[in-house]
peptide chain release factor N(5)-glutamine methyltransferase (Neolewinella xylanilytica), 294 residues
Amino acid sequence: MEERLLTQPANVLPVRTDDLSKHFVRELRTALGAGEAASVTRLVMEDVFGHRQGNRPRMLTPDEELLAWITLNRLHGGEPVQYVTGIADFYGLQLKVTPAVLIPRPETEELVEWILEDHPGGTNRRAVDLGTGSGCIPLALQDRRPEWQCEGVDVSQEALAVARENGKMLCSTVVFHEADVLQDCHLDEGAYDVIVSNPPYIPPSEREQMGESVLVHEPELALFVPEDDPLVFYRRVGEIGLSALSPGGYVYVETNEFNSNEVMRTFRELGYQLVERRKDLQGKWRMVRTRLEA
């Protein structure tokens, strides 16, 4: 997005919520398009100013006028709206997000949906998310399957702080652990029914295909893998699964749309017999599931 910072103080902005909403749409329309500008504006008005469409208009406080000016500056600078509001919606939950964690994506919701399809309510499962970031996956799983024992693992202390805050906010019993999946991730042997991961999978050579807002604002640690070993995390997740899964346990991973076949081959080379992939709603191969034979 073209950086276009406002230089005037907040009093140049409308001071009623309904007028402010219209102003945000006008200001963002050129860079985002009409539909996206309206969507971003709706999130800002709801999550920052507590104003929903159809609510009676009200006057902004002086602090809110300044906040409106700052918010519009940040959006003009290309910052993702979820970081601006500090909130991301995921599978019916509202989660805190900061630049220490990736913004949860719709395709990750589809991965959660696949897991829930395979394990209906009333089942007793122990599940762990490797590279949990905001904690969105285990928190969503436990929200829909409160009888499950869910965990999340991440190497980043900053990410874990966000995940734990989300867990506290949701009154969840998900447990979060600090560990490096590639180095010192030691899980109880044969104890898990589900291992899930949305690991880093983007080689540096694909940088130019990514949006500027992702490159500038989202954490590189959660995005990129070595150019010479782009499947390193999948191989490691598979290795962990061989010892940590119970007989008949599942591994679910999100993939790069270009490498799902290679991910499947990696699991087969590790000895997994039942390996399959699934397209997301955009028709891209973005998910792989494998099962450890009983």
Notes: The CA atoms of residues 18 and 214 lie 30 Å apart. The domain at 10-85 is CATH 1.10.8 (Helicase, Ruva Protein; domain 3). The chain has a mean pLDDT of 92.
